[in-house]
């Protein structure tokens, strides 16, 4: 199953990568593609938006007769990354609590002899 990455998550992923080193656009795409399905056409608008918000700056470096545009995180970009990271931690904690609570409730119901669905039983009526 492919869960869609929101723009906030994409912002966080890009900013996270850039906290470690500067990257050119295609290299950012390659790094993110190691974990998620994302196209270059998805990433470049994100980079333009982050630059417009002054969370990134750019500079060009010659490479094989052409220039590569590198992206560098700014101080305000780093602060935004920290805010996204804190929000993500809370989001992740809440998701895990719901998932774990569902599992533990099922075990408690089973121990109490309450009806619970079997693994193959549908949660809806037909």
From TrEMBL:
Compositional bias (Polar residues): 116-126
Gene3D superfamilies the record matches: Winged helix-like DNA-binding domain superfamily/Winged helix DNA-binding domain (1.10.10.10)
Transmembrane stretches, start-end: none
Pfam families recorded: PadR (PF03551)
Domain Transcription regulator PadR N-terminal: 14-82
Protein origin, superkingdom: Bacteria
Signal sequence annotation: none
InterPro entries found in the cross-reference section: Metal_resp_DNA-bind_regulator, Tscrpt_reg_PadR_N, WH-like_DNA-bd_sf, WH_DNA-bd_sf
Span list, region Disordered: 101-126
PANTHER family in the record: PADR-FAMILY TRANSCRIPTIONAL REGULATOR, TRANSCRIPTIONAL REGULATOR, PADR FAMILY
Protein name: Transcription regulator PadR N-terminal domain-containing protein
Native species: Pediococcus argentinicus
């Amino acid at each position: 199953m492919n869960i869609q990455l929101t723009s906030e998550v994409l912002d966080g992923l890009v900013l996270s990568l850039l906290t470690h080193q500067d990257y050119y656009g295609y290299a950012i795409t390659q790094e993110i593609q190691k974990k998620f399905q994302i196209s270059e056409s998805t990433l470049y608008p994100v980079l333009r938006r982050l630059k417009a918000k002054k969370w990134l700056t750019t500079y060009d470096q010659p490479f094989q007769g052409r220039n590569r545009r590198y992206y560098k995180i700014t101080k305000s970009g780093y602060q935004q990354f920290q805010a996204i990271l804190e929000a993500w931690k809370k989001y992740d904690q809440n998701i895990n609590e719901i998932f774990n609570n569902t599992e533990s409730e099922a075990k408690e119901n089973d121990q109490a002899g309450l009806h619970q669905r079997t693994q193959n039983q549908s949660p809806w009526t037909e």
